[in-house]
Amino acid sequence: MRSILISFIFLSLLSFNNSMAQDNDSTIIDIQYPDNWFNLDPEEDSVLGISTEKAYRTILKNKSSKNVVVAVIDSGIDIEHEDLQGSIWVNDDEIADNGIDDDNNGYIDDIHGWNFIGNADGENIESDSYELTREYVRLGIFFGNKDSLKLRRKNKEKYKYYKELEKQFMKQKTKFEEEYAQFSNFYKNYKFAKEILLNFTSSDTLTIEVINKIDTNSNEQLAQIINFYKNLLEHNINDKEVTNWQEHLEKQLNFAYNVDFDPRGLVGDNYEDLNEKYYGNNNVEGPDASHGTHVAGIIAANRNNKIGIQGIGDNVSIMSIRAVPDGDERDKDIANAIYYAVDNGAKIINMSFGKSFSPQKEAVDNAVKYAEEKGVLLIHAAGNSSKDIDVKDNFPTKKFLDEKSVSQLWIEVGASNSGINNAFVGSFSNYGSETVNIFAPGCQITSTTPDDNYEAFDGTSMASPVTAGVAALLMSYYPQLNSIQIKDILLKSSKKYENLEVIKPSKNAEKQEKVLFSELSISGAIINAYEAVKMAESMLIDSNK
Q1: Comparing 28-42, 176-190, 221-235, 513-527, which segment has the lowest mean pLDDT?
Q2: Dihedral angle at the C-alpha atoms of 432, 434, 436, 440, nearest 10 degrees?
Q3: pLDDT at residue 10 greater than cutoff 60
Q4: Max alpha carbon distance in the chain (Å)?
Q5: Distance CA 382, CA 442 (A)
Q6: 287 falls in which pLDDT band (50, 70, 90)?
Q7: Where are the domains of the chain?
């Protein structure tokens, strides 16, 4: 979401192209997030956290716990991170690096999990296209040069679907082509302004304090350059932010919406065979583990090492399953990732990914049903498109393809905000009064990133592991409870805000439509660890009477 904010600022500053910068009239609320805010308590700390610390300090004090395995299906995890030591799952039935499938599970040397988007030679997919692109290409082979009037009746619906895909694809591709052209103009101005200002200072780094010392000597052009650059610094936009945005736009055009890009051949599987399971490699980190490492830290960063952050669970083992590239994940890989997690002992599966199309949804549904049969809780991020997923899909979904049934062990999670400056919901978060079960903190969540780093990310991708972390906490301290009971507790114990008016998520930054928070999810609530623990404790006391 940080990149979306940047795009708005870039567009507002493009007038610098002709006449240098003018004052930026847009108002950005600068929210100062307390450290570890998502674990803090609403009453004690005046922030809409989930009361993790309160739970440990009170009800859980001096209680024993049982280890719980949480599978993180994601981009990969830096299992060497300093703050994840002691929190990474180890397959004790496998001997490391001996090239033998010791436990006969079909995966060789799967010590910490498995990677379904790599090959046996150790090569890995980093970027992939979007499912929209892949569907457009797949159907275009058949329908691209067809005359609709000459099609048989049974193909007319497919042709209509193809034309809808084509419309969506061209709209999105054109959008990013235009954004890239606009960004190129901004980038030219940015580099020009930076070079000019560095020449007027003795510093290697430009800060507001440094820039304010520059004497313009009534040089109007220099004053405008200073104003332009200060606008960026005031919004915390620096070289890293600019580079990240440039890379994002390039990836959209070179990979995501590129009809000629298809990296799947690298994996070496028979992609059409949805029953094929045993492909990939044991590299659970992959080329870019930033997202997955962040997710893992929220759930289980070491709480006792006095460094880094505080994860939610204190007796959790993270199983890393790499199946999500930079781009859209593929249904076959997600289905196999779920099977792997279940078969190797995971009790909770976190899924911080999603897409708008699912051509092999039945394969994923079958895997979800298998997980449900084994009592495994599945927790999924609602998505970051500011849309109502009651009417617009964000796959995978708890609703099965036959439309007649839904998974009973699925929790769909939207992203809540801190409550500071009346920010209660992530402006990016998807929502749905029939589809999203609950909200959880998902704005500026600080967690682990590769190479012993820590960063703050936005997204329902963060809200999902917050929920998974609380689920793991309950399973760990109350192993007598089954998964249905855990889900029930998570939803019923949540903090209700039925009458709270919030700003409805929207891609339009100027749109300020207010709705009741209760209209955005089934529960109208934010998950709370303390209340969940209190309810679990009460259930056990009642059952022992």
Answers
A1: 28-42
A2: 90
A3: no
A4: 83
A5: 11
A6: very high
A7: 2-27+132-256, 37-128+270-543
- What is the residue-wise DSSP string for 431-451? B-TTT--EEEE-SSEEEEETT
Supply the DSSP symbol for 255.
I
**What is the C-alpha separation between 509 and 277, in angstroms, rounded?**
44
CATH number of 37-128+270-543: 3.40.50.200
Mean pLDDT of the chain: 91
Exposure letters 158-188 (e unless 16+ CB within 10 A, then b)? ebeebeebeeebeebbeebeebbebbeebbe
Q: Which of 258, 257, 302, 294 is nearest to 457 (CA)?
A: 294
Torsion angle of alpha carbons 222, 225, 230, 233, nearest 10°?
A: -130
User: 3-state DSSP: the chain helix, strand, coil percent, rounded to 5?
Assistant: 40, 15, 45
E strand or H helix that includes residue 381:
strand 377-381
| Closest of 461, 114, 82 to residue 292, by C-alpha | 461
Amino acid in position 11:
L
CB-count exposure of residue 7 (10 Å: 0-12, 13-18, 19+): middle
| Separation CA 426–CA 505 (nearest Å) | 7
DSSP 135-176: HHHHHHHHHTT--GGGS-HHHHHHHHHHHHHHHHHHHHHHHH
pLDDT band at 21 (very low <50, low <70, confident <90, very high): very low
